[in-house]
TrEMBL record:
It comes from Chlorella variabilis (Green alga). Keywords: ATP-binding, Biotin, Hydrolase, Ligase, Nucleotide-binding. This is Uncharacterized protein. It comes from the Eukaryota. Residues 1169-1250 form the Lipoyl-binding domain. InterPro entries: ATP-grasp, BC-like_N, Biotin_BS, Biotin_carboxylase_complex, Biotin_carboxylation_dom, Biotin_COase_C, Biotin_lipoyl, CPAse_ATP-bd.
Length: 1250
């Protein structure tokens, strides 16, 4: 049929049916328009559309008929495809389309009215001589319903007349249920369909749900397709459909099709529809159920066995150009070609009454070895919202050979399908498809009730304070772009726990912080708990830590509060089956990545378990006491081994500073977490007055890559950078904790004292080998491959084959400057890294080019054991695995790295820097210039309250300070010299023109919060924050997101979610090459642009260019005089601001020494010994105390309020986590002895309940 009347289609729906309609339009060569609401902005139906229109923020806009008509008109659409659900069976919408000259792809409004009410549809079926079940007209009360129920005979169904999808249907087996359920059915019908009408219908106890697809020409010609078996349902909604039905005989098929045709002819049905029947499984009798006046969800399997494209038929019937629709429907007879099966994959939890589940799909993978049809709207990275139905995909298979091969195919397809991150019914569908009852075709509407299903998963009844999924070693080889490894804070306990249950080192386990979870196991397995001491129970009975134990389906494991350390680890045989992100399952909450939904676990979370053979595991496997980490009890001293470097020599710290580092205990600060462990101790004197071009504070240096576990002086505060910490920054690091000692920093608690002990390279090397051996032996014992006695004997006899190691010095090699070579130093940075630094401590882009060249040289060598090179401004951090590549070999072997010959060899193979030209990109980014987004833990500093005014003052800028900074910022051309400067691809970017190089110190101490997209200046560098995080840059505005987790939109490379690359430029035109301009926008405009960019609707301008070092050097010579004048002004201004900061720090020290920033609370006075430790002694009631050291974040209850046991009274913040303090019993809150923002110590009294 080629009428050619319809030229453009509006798809007035969402999700997979929108994608299906778009495919049909593409096949017919017809343009179409998709619509979406804000929650659906990144749905595949939007991203795949050539044209899409937003309906607005409200998720209900798909029901806004007026707006849909407006969109159709404004986009030139002359037809609307409603799909199913939403307005697909809305007679008013169909009429509105016709009234506006827009073709409605479906039946006429009059036809829909005939079948809209179930009771009137029954009347029409009777006229068409279609069998119906005994029932009633519309009812007015529960009592009337009971009268008809008695006539029909129990059991009966109460049905909402406007219902669909199982809504408003109640099975009533007793008279009481009829009366009681009437109001519920009426209410559900009114809420869902705007019709409170209810009627009674006879209930067939062993029923099948079988339906016939019809297609009519609107004049009386009806095509009836082979029946679909839809009996496998939950909550009256279909789970699995197939065609043809294994139950239906040819005679029954003819009767079903005949009934459907008669009904369609009577109604003069147009387009696609479905006549649904109830078939008595015992007698084969069938009865009319309803007519769906729309395309059915399961239409695809009918298409597969008949070769018909039903959507194309619908479009061509309304005039779309095509050749699918037969010219004469009356003469068309569909033929059955084999069998087809469809399963509906839904975001729901079958173990909990199919409750809907939401969240991010971290992995979506469809079958590749089995021929399947997949109708879906999801892919990896899609957020499943709570606003719409739970259907994620329809998985369909077809076999021309019939049903048994089709079953084999659907089982294989389900096994190969992966959807991770959100709980789905995928495992449940596998059980159904593989069941003998399904294979036998014994499938009534009660089929799923006979399935014994329990997911291979765990359920969190309580989540604990902060329980996360972590694997070892976390994310590897992404440090160079600012992706932290994450993983366990105490990797030793984590690895031993995994070994006890026979897991590989890399299996994902649970990290428990301070207080553990309560976990219900939904499958048999083996568990082990290691780490800081904590009470562990199995169904209330105590079990031992450091020893594996069996858990049966339905049992509960509970881990209490830790003592002697901060963290414990729960390993489960097979590991936790969460999706990998960037090569690891570890949770990085700050980046909302990895683990379960990128966050700590919550009550109600379901986490799947990996597959394993439990029969091969030994219960009761134990870690020998001598092999366990040695924990401290109470407020304790920890001795932690370190190696010097990279900034340990006298250039940065005085000898007295280094002596203090190794001789003075440092106290653990309460504001410590997985990012870093803050410490309180003596303030260094430093060997420099300032950081030069790196910043005005002596702790500042040109940005360089940090080693994991390094001791980083952020201003005057030492912070051990931990597994979620930043990779690139501009602060000095005098020492780095060794690999086998870092676990201790994962266990320290606020108030603990830490003493650092310098180890030798050889000691660090040997310890790592010995730990590896212990872990491997425990795993062999757990797997039954070795006895405990044999493992002890093996380790006692174990000798590490120690290679020669260089002397343990901060500077391992010095390469003198000479000729074209700027000179270099190779510095030690712990036992996993060495640090190569070029030239003098000056900012020289030519040095950064040399760093790039040496990186390329090393990459070309493919050195075994060389993990990653990570560039800084004038340095490169080289990570290596000492077990495969010993340090001596790394330093000395010819053609390996930095031996006395190979540096010369490397330089000989590289062009002189002056001859190098590098490609780069120019990015045009919007910037909202402002001074907001600050949150500091200092109340006074030169940079408060205005960062921008401070930048002007610190650089001696003349005139209005805001205008002066604004001018430089929008004129400057910034070149990206490194990534990860504060995390996740954040740029360390320097103005190409030195006259634009503003110099400022970073916050001291670091700011506690910075918004994602914040733009700041620190040292000489510009940075864009890719995530909300602490930070030290002086903020000047905000721009677009530069991190896209799943690279689904925008100019991001697959698998590389960072926007920027090294040598990119971001700002305005400046010699010697054109560069990107930060163009100014308002804050409101920026928010719109940010939304559009995140949703793939904004294309930023990106240009390709070439950076020539020789041309740049010539340019630098030409502006050298002006640059030196700027530096002179900056030196004077910086000295003034440093003096001001010193005065303010003295005031801060004085307040800290007095123990208060404000009037001390009872809890603070208690900590200082200034008050009775028992303020409620002698009073009736129950004293509530702080379980952790932290600050009072929120007081949730009021004095005099009645409380129940478990009610939250106070929320504490500790280690960047919120800890709820709950009422221990029912009663009345009599007294509160703390205030918001008070610091409290563990055990301090908070309030009294009587």
């Amino acid at each position: 049929m080629t009428q050619g009347l319809v030229t453009k289609l509006l798809v007035a729906n969402r999700g997979e049916i929108s994608c299906r309609a778009q495919r049909a339009c593409k096949k017919l060569g017809m343009p179409c328009v998709a619509v979406f609401t804000d929650p659906d902005a990144l749905s595949l139906h939007v991203l795949q559309a050539a044209e899409s229109v937003s309906l607005g923020a409200s998720p209900k806009e798909y029901l806004n008929a007026t707006k849909l008509i407006e969109v159709a008109k404004s986009t030139g659409c002359d037809a609307v495809f409603p799909g199913y659900g939403f307005l697909s069976e809305n007679t008013e919408f169909a009429a509105m389309c016709e009234d506006n000259g827009i073709a409605f792809i479906g039946p006429t409004a009059d036809t829909m009215r005939m079948f809209a009410q179930k009771h009137t549809a029954r009347e029409l079926a009777e006229r068409a001589e279609v069998p119906i079940l005994a029932g009633s007209p519309l009812l007015s009360s529960g009592e009337e319903a009971l009268e008809y129920a008695k006539k029909v005979g129990l059991p009966v169904l109460l049905k909402a007349t406007g219902g669909g999808g199982g809504i408003g249907i109640h099975i009533c087996r007793s008279e009481d249920e009829v009366v009681n359920n009437y109001a519920s059915a009426s209410r559900q019908g009114a809420a869902a369909f705007g019709d409170a009408g209810v009627f009674v219908e006879k209930y067939v106890q062993r029923a099948r749900h079988i339906e016939v697809q019809i297609f009519g020409d609107g004049k009386g010609a009806i095509v009836a397709f082979p029946e679909r078996e839809c009996s496998i349902q939950r909550r009256h909604q279909k789970v699995l459909e197939e065609t043809p039905s294994p139950f239906v005989t040819p005679e029954l098929r003819a009767a079903l099709q005949g009934a459907a045709v008669r009904l369609g002819q009577l109604a003069k049905y147009r387009s696609a529809g479905t006549v649904e029947f109830i078939v008595d499984d015992e007698t084969g009798e069938f009865y009319f159920l309803e007519v769906n006046t729309r395309l059915q969800v399961e239409h695809g399997i009918t298409e597969m066995i008949t070769g018909v494209d039903l959507v194309a038929w619908q479009l061509e019937q309304q005039g779309a150009k095509g050749t699918d629709l037969p010219a004469d429907l009356a003469s068309f007879t569909p033929q059955i070609n084999g069998a087809a099966i469809e399963v509906r994959i839904c975001a729901e939890d079958p173990a909990h009454n199919y409750r809907p589940c939401t969240g991010m799909l971290g992995l979506v993978a469809w079958p590749t070895s089995v021929a399947t049809r997949i109708d879906t709207w999801v892919e990896t990275g899609v957020e499943v919202s709570a606003y719409y139905d739970s259907l994620l995909a329809k998985l369909m298979v077809h076999s021309p050979e019939g049903r048994p091969p089709a079953i084999t195919k659907i089982c294989a397809a389900l096994e190969e399908t992966q959807l991770k991150g959100v709980t789905t019914n995928l495992e449940f569908l596998r059980v159904i498809a593989a069941s003998p009852a399904y294979a036998a075709g014994d499938t009534t509407t009660k089929f799923v009730e006979g399935i014994d299903y329990s997911p291979h998963a765990v359920e969190f009844l309580e989540a604990g304070l902060q329980t996360t999924v972590q694997d070892y070693p976390g994310r590897v080889a992404l440090w160079s772009v600012g992706v932290p490894p994450s993983g366990p804070m105490d990797d030793l306990s984590h690895r031993l726990a995994n070994a006890l249950v026979g897991n590989d080192d890399h299996a994902a386990a649970l990290e428990v912080t301070l207080t553990g979870p309560s976990i219900k196991f939904l499958a048999d397995t083996v568990v082990a708990v290691c780490g800081a001491e904590a009470p562990v129970t199995l169904d209330g009975a105590a079990v031992l830590m450091w020893q594996s134990f069996g858990v049966k389906r339905g049992q509960v494991v509970k881990v209490g509060a830790t003592t002697g350390g901060s963290r414990a680890y729960i390993a489960i045989a097979g590991g936790l089956d969460v999706p990998e992100y960037l090569g690891s399952k570890s949770t990085f909450p700050g980046g909302v990545m990895g683990g379960h939904q990128g966050r700590p676990l919550r009550p109600g979370d379901m986490v799947p378990l990996g597959a394993t053979d439990l029969s091969k595991l030994v219960l009761g496997a134990t870690v020998p006491p001598a092999w366990r980490p040695q924990f401290c009890s109470g407020i304790s001293d920890w001795t932690v081994g370190v190696l010097p470097g990279p900034q340990a020599d006298p250039d940065y710290f005085t000898p007295e500073d280094i002596q203090t580092l190794y001789s003075t205990p440092y106290k653990i600060h309460h504001n410590s977490n997985r990012l870093g462990i803050r410490m309180e101790g003596p303030r260094p004197k430093f060997a420099r007055l300032d950081g030069g071009e790196g910043g005005s504070h002596p702790s500042n240096v040109h940005d360089h890559v940090y080693a994991l576990g390094t001791i980083n002086f952020t201003g005057d505060m030492p912070i051990v950078l931990m597994v979620d910490g930043p990779s690139l920054g501009g602060f000095v690091c005098p020492a780095t904790i060794t690999t086998t000692e870092l676990w201790k920093m994962g266990q320290v608690r606020p108030g603990d004292a830490v003493c650092f002990k310098k180890l030798s390279i050889q000691e660090a090397y040997e310890r790592r080998f010995r730990v590896d051996r212990q872990v491997a032996l425990v795993c062999q014992v757990a797997r039954g491959a070795l006895s405990a006695a044999a493992a002890d004997a093996d380790f006692a006899a174990y000798k590490v084959d120690m290679p020669e190691s260089p002397p343990t010095e901060a500077v391992l090699r010095v390469i003198p400057a000479g000729g074209a070579h700027p000179g270099a130093q190779v510095r030690l940075a712990g036992d996993r890294y060495i640090f190569l630094e070029y030239g003098p401590m000056e900012l020289d882009i030519a040095l950064r080019v040399r760093v790039h060249e040496i990186e390329q040289y090393l990459a070309d060598k493919s050195i075994d054991g060389l993990i990653e090179t990570s560039p800084g401004v004038r340095s490169v951090m080289i990570e290596y695995d000492q077990r495969r590549l010993p340090l001596a070999k790394l330093l000395q072997a010819r053609r390996c790295c930095f031996g006395p010959w190979t540096i010369e060899e490397a330089e000989a193979t590289m062009k002189p820097a002056d001859d190098v030209s590098l490609p780069y990109r120019v990015l045009h980014l919007p910037l909202a210039f402002n001074e907001k987004y600050m949150r500091s833990i200092r109340s006074e500093a030169p940079y408060l309250p205005s960062n921008v005014e401070f930048i002007a003052a610190n650089n001696g800028l003349e005139g209005d300070p805001i205008e002066a900074v604004h001018k430089v910022l929008f004129e400057a051309s910034y070149m990206v010299l490194g990534l990860g400067d504060v995390y996740l691809g954040a740029p360390c970017a320097v103005p190409v023109d030195p006259r634009h190089r503003l110099v400022v110190p970073k916050y001291n101490p670091a700011r506690t919060y910075t918004p994602e997209g914040g733009v700041g200046i620190g040292g000489t560098y510009m940075c864009i924050y890719p995530m909300a995080s602490p930070g030290g840059y002086q903020l000047v505005g905000r721009t677009l997101p530069i991190w896209n987790p799943f690279t689904r939109t925008g100019p991001f490379q697959p698998g590389k979610p960072w926007l920027l690359r090294n040598f990119d430029q971001a700002s305005s035109p400046a010699p010697p090459a054109p560069a990107v301009r930060y163009y100014e926008v308002s804050e409101d405009e920026l928010e719109r642009l940010r939304t559009d960019f995140a949703n793939g609707r904004l294309d930023i301008k990106i240009e390709q260019a070439t950076f020539n070092v020789h041309e740049y050097n010539e340019f630098m010579k030409g502006v050298a005089g002006e640059y030196e004048e700027l530096r002179q002004r900056q030196r004077v201004a910086m000295a003034e601001q440093m003096a001001l900061d010193a005065e303010m720090l003295k005031k801060l020290d004085a307040r800290q020494a007095s123990g208060m920033h404000h009037a001390p609370s009872v809890a603070v006075r208690l900590a200082l010994g200034e008050h009775d430790e028992h303020p409620y002694e002698g009073q009736d009631g129950t004293q509530v105390t702080a379980a952790v050291t932290g600050t009072v974040w929120e007081i949730k209850a009021e004095i005099g309020q009645a409380v129940k046991a478990g009610d939250t009274l106070i929320v504490l913040e500790a280690m960047k986590m919120e800890y709820a303090v709950t009422a221990p019993c029912d009663g009345t809150l009599k007294h509160i002895c703390v205030q918001q923002a008070d610091m409290v110590q563990q055990g301090s009294p908070l309030c009294l309940v009587v």
